[in-house]
């Protein structure tokens, strides 16, 4: 027994010492206009944790923008996004207002709910979130309920978890995800590979075997600046693009059994129970392009269904699903600069009409 205790204490001390040692190579990250989608983003949430810490230190009024690639601004520069323009608009009302863009491409409703929980401690005065009908498609859900795997930790104590968040034992998966966020996991590539290529419960022993004084891995390069958007009319829409659109628009009617619908409801319930003010908006869709391939009836019915779900829970929302002309899109749902500017203006006007940001 004494031998086992001594061995356990020695193992713990070794891991702590190694973690501190690896931390000497840790780069600093600061919140910019939006998150940096480097090779580690969807595997380690150091950026998200640092962003939340940064937001905690900011004074009110502060706004957090949550969403997918349409909010992130995938086809525009970082100073042409909805959150960027929204900050400019809100600062005309309150010069000290801040807007943090914490959206990222691929974010599903399960991601957004986890992000709301993660950012609640930053005490935002307002959360603006896009409701994009794209991410309620069953084929998207079948690919995975959670795009950012690091957010599994937010589901550890949830009673009902969307199918696909956990593949196996949720405690072990959360532990492995958490270990990726230690200095060892972040900055010692060879340890990280051994750690998470192993079978469950083997990773501690493998970590001890792998620890050795080797040079620190090179910093991950920042993601390249996205290409400035080109109107969808200047692109060729062939079978490949049609197949991509079918994945997200060729779907049946939404129902209460849809995991993403349940996540939207849970998002609103959490916001109400924690006193978080939320403005939802139904993300614009390029009906002109979509209508070339698919019947718009089901799309509009699903948008109306999501709107009804928000109404039933007394949510504050703005229906912008058909508010942007086709000429201001780069594809089926990603807007160019002018479209993003227009959405930001409409959101700012809605916020002002409802009394502005809380001081």
From TrEMBL:
Residues 1-22 form the signal peptide. Keywords: Signal. It comes from the Bacteria. This is SGNH hydrolase-type esterase domain-containing protein. InterPro entries: SGNH_hydro_sf.
């Amino acid at each position: 027994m004494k031998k086992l205790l001594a061995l356990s204490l020695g193992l713990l001390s070794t891991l702590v010492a190694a973690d501190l040692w690896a931390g000497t190579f840790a780069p600093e990250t600061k919140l910019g206009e939006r998150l940096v989608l480097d090779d580690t983003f969807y595997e380690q949430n150091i950026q998200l944790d640092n962003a939340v810490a940064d937001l905690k230190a900011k004074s009110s009024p502060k706004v957090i923008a949550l969403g997918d690639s349409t909010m992130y601004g995938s086809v525009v520069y970082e100073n042409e996004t909805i959150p960027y323009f929204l900050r400019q608009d809100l600062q005309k009302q309150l010069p000290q207002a801040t807007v943090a863009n914490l959206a990222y491409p691929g974010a599903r409703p399960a991601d957004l709910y986890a992000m709301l929980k993660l950012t609640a401690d930053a005490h935002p005065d307002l959360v603006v979130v896009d409701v994009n009908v794209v991410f309620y498609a069953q084929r998207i859900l079948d690919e995975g309920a959670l795009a950012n795997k690091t957010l599994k930790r937010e589901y550890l104590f949830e009673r009902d978890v969307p199918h696909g968040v956990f593949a196996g034992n949720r405690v072990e998966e959360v532990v492995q995800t958490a270990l990726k966020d230690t200095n060892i996991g972040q900055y010692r590539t060879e340890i990280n590979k051994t750690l998470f290529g192993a079978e469950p419960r083997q990773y501690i022993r493998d970590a001890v075997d792998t620890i050795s004084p080797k040079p620190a891995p090179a910093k991950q390069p920042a993601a390249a600046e996205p290409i400035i958007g080109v109107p969808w009319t200047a692109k060729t829409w062939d079978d490949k693009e049609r197949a991509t659109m079918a994945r997200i628009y060729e779907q049946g009617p939404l129902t209460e059994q849809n995991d993403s619908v349940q996540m939207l409801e849970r998002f609103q319930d959490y916001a109400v129970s924690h006193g978080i003010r939320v403005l939802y908006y139904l993300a614009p869709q390029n009906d002109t392009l979509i209508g070339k391939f698919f019947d718009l009836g089901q799309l509009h019915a699903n948008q109306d269904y999501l709107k009804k779900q928000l109404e039933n829970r007394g949510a504050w929302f703005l229906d912008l699903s058909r508010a942007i002309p086709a000429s201001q899109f780069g594809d089926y749902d990603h807007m160019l600069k002018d479209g993003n500017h227009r959405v930001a203006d409409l959101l700012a006007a809605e916020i002002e009409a409802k009394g502005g940001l809380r001081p």
